[in-house]
Specification:
heterodimer, A: alpha/beta, six-stranded mixed sheet, B: alpha+beta, SH3 type barrels, six-stranded antiparallel sheet, 6 strands
């Protein structure tokens, strides 16, 4: 089998080509550094040769400074651990920006692995009237050039035919010769870069039939969006609207789902299986617990939609540009903004995205602070408590107060990202700097089909978690909160004699200063699995404890009548800071390759959560 | 000599040299890093750069267009101070 690597500048369409080849649906967006890890897929050529396609992170040069670029360099030079040597490199060139791509092609030619060049995005180039003499390009570079529009799967067959043609003309390379040689990458000095620059200029001079025009649209949009004042206002308005939308748009679908689950729960516990253990397990345990998180799906989808639009349109890097000054003042690397903005959907891809940061210390600081960003898994607990405790009134008849509180929680998260980054930078004595040069790609209108595909991903993973982790935790929790049974002469509701109450009450002394009751403590323990689990756990605990009346009320109303305002605000504050997500700690362990950093992350977040909740609770007393 | 730091908004200029010797905060950077990165991103002696936007309060970062490329490159002030520029009169691009 042939190993084929996709290599090219960031954001030139490698992953789109990979998806077109393999039929997979890897994330494609419009900012440099979407792909930070290698990915595999398989494709069969028209002549029935099966090839393994390896999608690699984008790079401008084989000098490779950042961790993601190093993956690319190591794989194509055959020194990556457990990775077979590459038989063919597909070098993807962006037809709208040939210079950078051709320079990389010249660097790749130093390795003696065969290359096929893929000129991608020819549709956009055509629209801008760039015209090139492809035959001449093939002659000058001595490399086959195929034109494609990867996102529309145009030209894919031609690339496969070119691979077949290569196999036909190099039958021996399939097995022996390629596998035995180790390609070497020469040191790319500034002098060599300059030489390549000159050669590329000469190539372009000879192949260019029409210079084409600059896309003025991006320039026009940037006049406004990159403006120091308007640009900042736009970014804040965008984020503000997002949190308004979370409450306003999601209200109707959420209420519908809510009444559906309430009806189902009441049906099981009062009509179908009244006063039976099975009825209680199904109704109070599973339906209450799973239903409590499922109702937040509209919110998760709205947040994801905004993030996808941000990434696909090309605005992501602009937001990083606007925020750069603020980031720099806290000592964060300029590239840290994109990981932090991604953490807004989920900290796990956010932490992975730090691979675009060159320096190890800069990268670790970013990883440590990323989980403070308001991720979508915090939505259930925030929404639950905000809806229950903050009145749903409008300020100036326009702004939803609940949305405003949510927006401030987001701002507090960002503020502490900056504060903690500043502190960590001070502790870790980070003074030396790395160049921070970013590309702002031209704007693209997000494709509806791509947005829909991407929206399915958080939906599926949320449902999968609800169907697996949450169901199993809820079953365990139901047992723990039902057994042991209350004594016959019990005065308090039965749950007060259960294991959950015993455990919760044992730990209660620790949490009294921050106003948590034993029910909250009992929900926080399974809530370590993922943030939304705590909401399910609260639902189950209160459903098991509840009388028939309590079931017909929803969880929010119930909490409102049993908790004080101080307890609610303290728990919200806890969730702004606390490390209630085991997957984040696991990905930190993997990315830093040590137990030290996840432990530091856990302790500082725990300490900060306790301290801030204590302050909030004390102020409310 | 002027650098990208001295460009006015929307001013076009030709790159005369890329040189780390008088760069801001030079001592904090590894020698050659900034020069190499600038070359990788498309800066080269003779290319025409346009300052499209600056950050808050007229400071960093700098959004630069190289030649007539459709994408912009964002630089912080240290990198910008390593790119020396002159006026475009007499330059054929």
């Amino acid at each position: 089998m042939l190993n084929i690597a996709l290599v090219g500048n960031p954001n030139c369409g490698k992953t789109a080509l990979f998806n077109a080849f393999t039929g997979s649906r890897q994330r494609v967006a419009n900012y440099p550094g979407v792909t930070v890890d290698k990915k595999y897929g398989y494709v069969t050529t028209p002549k029935n040769h099966t090839c393994k396609i390896i999608d690699l992170p984008g790079t401008y040069s084989l000098r490779s400074i950042t961790p993601d670029e190093k993956i690319t360099k190591d794989v194509i030079s055959g020194v990556y651990k457990n990775e077979e040597p590459i038989d063919i490199i597909l070098c993807i060139l962006d037809a709208t920006n040939l210079q950078n791509g051709l320079r990389l092609l010249l660097e790749l030619k130093q390795i003696d692995t065969p290359i096929i060049a893929v000129l991608n995005m020819v549709d956009i180039a055509k629209r801008r009237e760039h015209k090139y003499d492809i035959d001449k390009l093939q002659k000058l570079t001595n490399v086959d050039v195929i034109e494609t529009v990867a996102i529309k799967s145009v030209g894919i067959q031609d690339v496969l035919k070119a691979i077949d043609k290569y196999i036909q003309t190099h039958p021996q390379s399939k097995t022996t010769i390629q596998k035995n040689h180790t390609p070497s990458v020469t040191n790319i000095t500034p002098a060599l870069s300059r030489k390549n620059h000159i050669e590329v200029a000469s190539i372009i001079n000879q192949i260019e039939l029409n210079r084409g025009k600059v896309s003025n649209k991006s320039t026009q949009i940037d006049k406004f969006l990159l403006h120091p004042v308007w640009g900042m206002l736009f970014l804040l308005t965008f984020l503000f609207l997002l949190f308004q939308a979370v409450f306003e748009w999601a209200k109707i679908p959420k209420d519908l789902l809510q009444s559906g689950f309430d009806y189902l729960q009441a049906l099981i516990t009062t009509k179908l299986l009244p006063n039976t253990m099975l009825g209680s397990l199904l109704g109070d345990g599973i339906i209450a617990g799973v239903g409590a998180v499922i109702v937040f799906i509209p919110q998760i989808l709205i947040i994801s939609l905004f993030v996808i639009l941000l990434e696909d349109s090309g605005y992501m890097s602009r937001a990083a540009f606007i925020m750069d000054k603020i980031m720099a003042s806290s000592g964060l690397h300029g590239k840290a903004f994109i990981p932090i903005l991604s953490s807004f959907a989920c900290a796990i891809p956010g932490i992975m995205a730090t691979r675009t940061i060159e320096n190890k210390t800069d990268r670790i600081i970013t990883i440590l602070v990323a989980p403070l960003t308001t991720c979508s898994a915090r939505m259930p607990i925030y929404t639950l408590l905000i809806s229950a405790f903050i009145p749903a009134q409008k300020i100036w008849g326009l702004v939803n107060l609940q949305g405003l509180v949510m927006f401030s929680l987001f701002l507090v998260g960002i503020l502490f990202v900056l504060i903690m980054a500043f502190i960590f930078r001070f502790i870790l004595h980070r003074h030396s700097k790395e160049p921070c040069i970013m590309e702002l790609p031209s704007y693209k209108i997000p494709s509806i089909s791509n947005v829909l595909i991407e929206l399915q991903k958080p939906l599926k993973s949320f449902l999968r978690r609800a169907g697996t982790i949450i169901v199993s935790i809820m079953i365990i929790l139901w047992f723990l909160s039902t057994y042991p049974k209350a004594p016959i002469n019990a005065i308090l509701p039965a749950i007060n004699y259960s294991f959950v109450a015993i455990i919760g009450k044992h730990l209660e002394w620790l949490f009294i200063p921050i106003g948590f009751n034993w029910q909250i403590i009992a929900a926080l323990i399974p809530g370590m699995a993922a943030r939304e689990v705590a909401v399910s756990a609260l639902a189950t605990i209160y459903a098991v404890a509840g009388s028939e009346d309590a079931i017909s009320h929803n969880l929010g109303t119930l909490l409102h009548s049993t908790w004080s305002m101080g307890t609610a605000l303290s728990l919200i504050t806890w969730y702004v800071f606390a490390p209630q997500c085991i997957s984040t700690l696991a990905v930190t362990k993997r990315e830093t390759n040590s137990y030290k950093w996840p432990m530091i992350m856990f302790s500082y977040q725990m300490g900060l959560a306790y301290l801030m909740s204590f302050i909030v609770y004390t102020l409310c007393l | 000599m002027r650098t990208i730091l001295d460009l006015k908004l929307h001013e076009e200029a030709v790159v005369l040299s890329i040189n780390e010797n008088t760069m801001i905060d030079k001592e904090h950077y590894k020698k050659g890093d900034v020069e190499s990165r600038l070359l990788d991103m498309g800066f080269i002696e003779g290319c025409v750069v346009t300052l499209m936007r600056r950050g808050l309060f007229g400071g960093e970062p700098f959004a630069i267009r190289i030649n007539q490329n459709s994408s912009l490159i964002s630089l912080r002030k240290s990198e910008a101070s390593a790119v020396f520029v002159g006026n475009t009169r007499g330059v054929v691009c």
